[in-house]
Amino acid sequence: MALSDRRAVRGRPGVGWWCVVEWEFEDDDAVRELLAYVSQVTRALGLSGECSYVQADGSYLSAYLALDGHLPGFADRDVALLWDEERGWAVAVETDSAEPPFVLARLRGPVRPEPTAVARWVDDLDLVPDDGLLTAR
Fold this sequence. Notes:
This protein is α+β, with helices and mostly antiparallel strands. It contains two helices and seven strands, in the order ββαβββββα. The chain has a seven-stranded mixed beta sheet, covered by helices on one side.
């Protein structure tokens, strides 16, 4: 079955469902490679991947990974990692469903760093667990 005929891909055990938006893409191998890479990053972060997707829009690839917890100063905002093929990983906060996430920082270096490097960067963000939102840090 061609990638253009599929709507979702089952992740590896423990990773969850991966949703792919806009499957019409000129290079099926590039989509598969990005799915594999984002899955590796998800595992390195210890996430399930349930709130994640890879988007293939024409010849442009991007990804979204929801993170657990919140950033200090943004207790009422969900946090996500965004990836695009030109700039790599960024951390963003959600504003509302009608607006795109607001990018706060970008991971410098290669566009596709090692998954463990992404996990270390996220760990350094000092996310506040959801149950600790009312606890001073």
